[in-house]
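SAMPLE LOG
Freezer: B-3
Tube label: C17
Construct: single chain, 1018 aa
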Amino acid sequence: MQVQYFSKNDAMAPDRTGSPLLPPRPGRAGIPRELPAAFVRIEPPPAELSPAAAPIAEGLYALFPAPGDPAVVDTAVRLARRQIVAGNGQKPTALVFAGSVRSSSAGHVPVADPLLAALTRRPPEFAAGGVFLTARAAQSLEEGYRLVAVPDYVDDAGKRFPLFALGAERTAPVPFRNAEVLHRRLAWVPRPESEELRLTFAEAPVIRLTGPLGAGKSRLAWESLRGSRARVLWSVTGSRRGEAPGHREQIARHLEVLARQLAADAQELIANLVSWAREAPVWIVADGLESATPEDWEWLLALAAAATEEHGALHLLLVGRNGTPWPDELDGCPRIPLGPLVGAAEERFARQAVAGLSLPAAVEERLRRQAAGNPFAFEELLVSLARSHQLRRVVGTFFYSGDEGFEAPPSSRLIGHVEAEVARLGEADPLRLLAASGEPVPDDLLATAAGALGFAGGPRWVEPYLASGWLISREGPWGEGVDFAAPVWRAALAATLPPESLLMARRALGGRLAAAAPERPSWATYQLLAGSLAGARELVALVRGPHADAPRAALFEALRSEAVEVAALGEGEDLERELLWALLPLGRRLGRLGELGPELERAQQLVADRPERFVAIATVHAELEQNAGRYREAEQLLRRALAASREGSGVDSRRQALVALELGRVLQRQGRRREARELLERLLPVLDAGGRHGLAALCRFLLGNLALEEHRLDDAERLHRAALEARRSARGGATAAVASLSALAAVRTAMGDFFQAVALYREADELARSDRGDGEDSFVLLGLGRALARIGDFASARGPLRRALALRQGLDDRAGEAIARLAVAENHLQLAQLADAEREARRAHFDLSLLPEGTALGDAELLLGRIHLACNRPAEARPHLAEAARIHRARGQAVALARDLAAQLAAAIAQGETREVRRLALELEDQLATIGSRRASDEPFDYHLYRAAVWLRAHGEPEIDPEPWLERAYATLLEQTSFLAPADRHHFLFGLPLHREIVEAAAREGLATQGGTHPVRH
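STRUCTURE (predicted):
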């Protein structure tokens, strides 16, 4: 038996010309699709088999859903049984198993399957004359059969497939589809239609019960009738392909079994029924009439006439789905429509269906949303959870072991029913396009797209689907359109589309939608065209507009993906340029510049002949290099941009000034303060003269930062106040004003006016909240936290510092995140949370060590050293402190170097090294002289020298006088309190341990602030 398989890897490659790579025109066969199938393997192969089964290979046949006939396994079983009966003494053996086929105009090809392949290599050995089913096939049976477990089939790799032997037919315990769900019988949930049906019983001998697939019509009829005293006979339309008995044959069989009455023809059967009904009322329920044959209708109309004549004795309940072709003779019969479960009934049904399954609330809610009140769909979704191994059975009880985000796929049985139903109602190809779209779509566009692909879809294709309740009208991205009444129907139909069909459908529909409204590009249309040149053009048109319906993160990924794909073609540089031009600023706004290094390089190549764009992209690239700490590279990019702006045309003076200002910032970050200051001071008069007030304010801001670094505090305050005034007077300058307020607060901190600094930072934070809505600005929050720490309010500093770190996490600015983490680590140290402090400091140190060496790395080394000192590990502290001093000295950070020396002095005292203590004290003394007199913002370094002098005096150097250093430390402390209100003064002097220690030492010594000598040099 040779079988040609369709591999899942044979998916169609996308075509970048903007149109799908179409297969041969399938004509009336419809869009190529993958359908659930039942396979029948018969040995020895029969000479011929019913044309209802598609031959796959010698002795192997496939059946898949047909219009109105989803029960492929039942059909396969009936065909197999007929073949065995007709075996002419050969006693063939049949195996029925489940799988799937690819269906198109070219024919039907089985999808590669482990069992199918194994059967080819190693045929099973069965008892002659039997029909056997795999477990998966047995689970899909619609009708009742007795099944007997037989030994497993074992393939040549040792994998086992459970098997069952088919026994005789049996009456199903209930006539509705799922008597049990996951081995549990679900209780009946009463519905209003049940009472309506009971009331109609007394008034009409013939009643019609209608509703969509899976709404619960059969269950409603069963529950409504079983409580009555009447006898009930049930018949169901069977498979036409499997030659199942019709409604008349089923009723005749019931009558023969129950009343032992035989009937030679229809009239005699009706006479016998009437005779039996006169003894006690008889209800005949004819179900599944949407697929009834003309012979079935002939019988049912005769039965309806008899029921009308025998009103009160014989009753007929006709059950069919919406869209059933009712004969005209039944127009006068009452019709009871049944819709989906809603309200309390839906709630009760869902609750009892999931009872004991330990489903997370999110999963339960998702199932309910998918099923939209359809009981059959909900039951099959639960079965799908079990078959997907999300629900696991342990000692008879199911437990959910899956992910809360898991979305249950439709079961193969549900897919079969959906496929048969949509094919019964009308032309299904537009419906498949709708399933592929994922959104409501105007029905005329669906028909047009289907027709363009050569598939069926007339102008009125939608009417039977709307009339049946299968589709509803709903507003979508393209205006009023049609959508599925239940999301699960969309999922089931989409599951029939293999990758190449899905791609074909989405591209065709997207192309029609884009052409229908070229002036209104949309995110939804792009999603249909994604991966094609047409999609890239739609995306470019979208980003040129407001693109309000596009999520920014998804838009970023789409632009990036399309740029890569278009570049791979090598034929769309203009389109690639536009994609990158939109991508780069979006990546900047999202804080994801760090991911776009290759794109930035490529963009610069594409715009090399366009100075205005080259300057803009080079500036963004320089920002990326700065965020990564690569300041030299950023400087080179900015110098190239500046040269291009001067040499080329089309770059306005504002853009040139922005590049120059950014260059000044980069020079400052490299510690080249003199170069930066000269550049900015040359630029400022030009900006003032040109009326560029916003840029002039930015220039003053940068100059103010330089003055602060150089400890020219009066100049810094003047420049920042001027920048703040200009920014406050400018419209839309709230963000810039926040930066200026923060800078002023930093100046007040440097002056020792910590309480005023806190007030300025709080004002900046409030302005940031009102301007941006998220209320978070990491620079403001860092400054606020540090200022609060300087006044000893470590607990209050904790919140702003952690918020600042949270804001910087996940952005491109690795250095910025590490600096925020250092501030958090220092706060842990201040709160004596030493383990947390060390953990955060080490992480920040690691991140900074991956970047070019800068001041922040020295700060990390210093903090690690201080943490070791707090943990009484001076030997481990000293290498960190020495490295901090080296980095700060190399970068001209005078105050930071003084902090390094003070910490090294404490470590040397802890280890009792007299010579090292004296050396470090002298070096710190010299460093303080270098800083100058305006160092009120720093901790009182003189007190560290006082402690060193006290220690040296106690260790053999009695000539040293510590008192002058204490006097100077105390004077510095009092100078800092000059800014404070009386109430704040007490907290500042006694709230910080070091300040309290200075005050207590001064009190012991009875000191007044006086001049003094240098005791260490004495």
